[in-house]
Amino acid sequence: MSGKAEVEGNEPINEQAVANIYGAMRSDINQIYSKITELEMEASEHSLVMNAIKPLDPSRRCYRMIGGVLVERTIKEVLLAVQHNKEGLEEVIARLNEALEKKKKEVADFENKYKIRIRKSDEVQDDAGRKEGFAQGVLVGPASGNE
């Protein structure tokens, strides 16, 4: 986080330093997005497990993997544990969303302070469009012996 120290303490000395700090900030945002997505997937999996075992008899035997070890429990115990884990995941997701909003504001302030503008490359989009255009509409029929 040396970039953060440069922003708060000493001012960056040149455009390259500003670009490096900005890149690090954008990278932090992407990492937070990735972690949020990962945790949302885990919370979704927890919901699927809860929905699958809720209608079953609470005293029925159930197996749960804990730290690589398969443990025998009842459905009631497993349901409570999975529900507790899901609530914990949702709390972490909420905190990460708050951190994400704070980081986005930092980046916006940084962009305004140094007048950073993101250029979109039209040439790259045009090339990609042309390549797709050439690949589209090509039909190859079956080989026939009577040409």
Description:
This protein is mainly alpha-helical. It has one domain (2-115): Helix Hairpins, CATH 1.10.287. It is built from four helices and two strands, in the order ααββαα. A two-stranded antiparallel sheet has the order 1-2. Strand 1 and strand 2 (69-74) form a beta hairpin. It is elongated. The termini are far apart. Mean pLDDT is 83; it is low at 1-7 and 131-140. This is Prefoldin subunit 2. It comes from Camellia lanceoleosa.
At a glance:
This protein has four helices and two strands, in the order ααββαα.
- The strand line-up of the biggest sheet is 1-2
Kindly name the structural category. Answer: mainly alpha
CATH class: Mainly Alpha
Quickly give the CATH architecture: Orthogonal Bundle
Protein name: Prefoldin subunit 2
Organism: Camellia lanceoleosa
Secondary structure layout plus pairing:
Blueprint: H1 2-8, H2 15-53, E1 61-66, E2 69-74, H3 75-113, H4 122-135
Antiparallel strand pairs: 1-2
Protein name: Prefoldin subunit 2
Organism: Camellia lanceoleosa
Provide the descriptors you would attach to this structure in a database record:
147 residues, mainly alpha, Helix Hairpins, two-stranded antiparallel sheet, 4 helices, 2 strands, Prefoldin subunit 2
